[in-house]
DNA sequence: TTCGTCATGTAATGGGTTACATGATTAC
DNA sequence: GTAATCATGTAACCCATTACATGACGAA
């Protein structure tokens, strides 16, 4: 999750950790609100694994920028990894949070990939909707459980329509 | 989360782990789908801490029930703990998953507690809605990010109305 | 000079997962 | 007898959090 988001953001331009954190939060709202204790170790790990590289500049006394920052950029390997991650369609990749992050970087995703991801998500939400419907029909819930399931079912149906529009827009260009 | 759900289910009747797991899944859908590796150690922990007790029966050769099950029941301490947990209103208690579980056990929650929880959740969702609105207004998002934020905003507004109805129903009885 | 925010990091902990192992019971 | 499901558990790991520590820099 965080890995995908970091690679996605660095796809545009090199950045340091703190800025990544703010951009993430602005871009993904609560889905992208990672704490320092998560972000920084992740960056070091990606660096170790060769997906990121550290920009050398910054410590020189060039125009005002000699803060003690570490500026990271994406390597070729990192670019490949991003391409692989963003196109995944397995169960995990269709979770709420994971799907949101994928969608946020859709403009850097090849079109056929986008369609696959959208359709996989739709199947997932449809399944959830069916489960909710049968639960409502079979179980004898109290009023609160009924209210809960009803809201969730409406949300599912709304998202399915929303996905349908996105898919249609993809297909017509 | 799981702790609350377990205490809530055992509030009704003693049960063994496997049954708890199925009931959880039926009751809470994906929110209650805990794996064995989570559930069983949690039960042992609650037992150690005195919130649960093991029913002695079951190993005797009474009417067909001599499986190697461990049947748990709620102790007084466990009852108190459940009452404390279910009424919590802090940040965590208003998370999607946590709120769903609380609501699922609302029939075992005192009325004034229910109102507090519902209102806290509404404040939380309202805040989220505002954040989404300002993000949509300020940021220059690509079409996918706009679609994402729009759906999330509509969901927030729907849930706020839904919460309003529940709150009204509570107040009028 | 002090305060806020920028900036990076560590340590302990939490709360869950997967994969695996084991064995009893039921249904065919 | 064999397969499915019931039933419990362990070990290793993952991804995140909180709380804390440190220090540079800019503005009041």
Walk me through what this model shows:
The structure is a homodimer of 173-residue chains. Helix content of chain A is 65%, strand content 5%. Chain A has helices spanning 2-10, 17-28, 36-48, 76-86, 96-104, 111-138, 143-172, and strands at residues 15-16, 52-54, 71-74. Chain A has a three-stranded antiparallel β-sheet with strand order 1-3-2. In chain A, α6 (111-138) runs antiparallel to α7 (143-172). Chain A binds chain B through residues 26-27, 29-30, 100, 103-104, 106-107, 128, 131-132, 135, 139, 142, 144-145, 147-149, 151-152, 154-155, 158-159, 162, 166, and chain B through 26-27, 29-30, 100, 103-104, 106-107, 128, 131-132, 135, 139, 142, 144-145, 147-149, 151-152, 154-155, 158-159, 162, 166. Chain A binds a DNA duplex (28 and 28 nucleotides) through residues 1-2, 16-19, 34-44, 67-70.
Rounded radius of gyration of chain A (Å): 20 Å
Total strand segments of chain A: 3
Query: Which residue ranges of chain A are poorly predicted, with pLDDT under 50 across at least 5 consecutive positions?
Result: 58-66
Distance between the termini of chain A: 28 Å
Quaternary state of this entry equals: homodimer
N-to-C series of helices and strands of chain A = HEHHEEHHHH
- Look at the structure and give the mean pLDDT of chain A: 90
Shape of chain A: elongated
Main interface: chain pair and counts: A-B, 28 and 28 residues
Give the DSSP E fraction of chain A (strand runs of 2 or more residues): 5-15%
Annotation field: number of helices of chain A: 7
Largest sheet of chain A: 3 strands, antiparallel
